[in-house]
């Protein structure tokens, strides 16, 4: 079983920054509205969305690295 190297982690973080930066560059007004919407969303909904996103991400990584 191969372990995930720290370099892979940094590449993932880099891709995250690239995608987020592209979203802000392409449509700053939409991102501003999305952030305002997140502020108005109850904590429990944000928590559920975060957990589901994390699980999907882990499953995707597991599937690709398998």
From TrEMBL:
Pfam families: DUF2065. Keywords: Membrane, Transmembrane, Transmembrane helix. It comes from Bradyrhizobium australiense. The chain crosses the membrane at residues 7-25, 45-64. This is DUF2065 domain-containing protein.
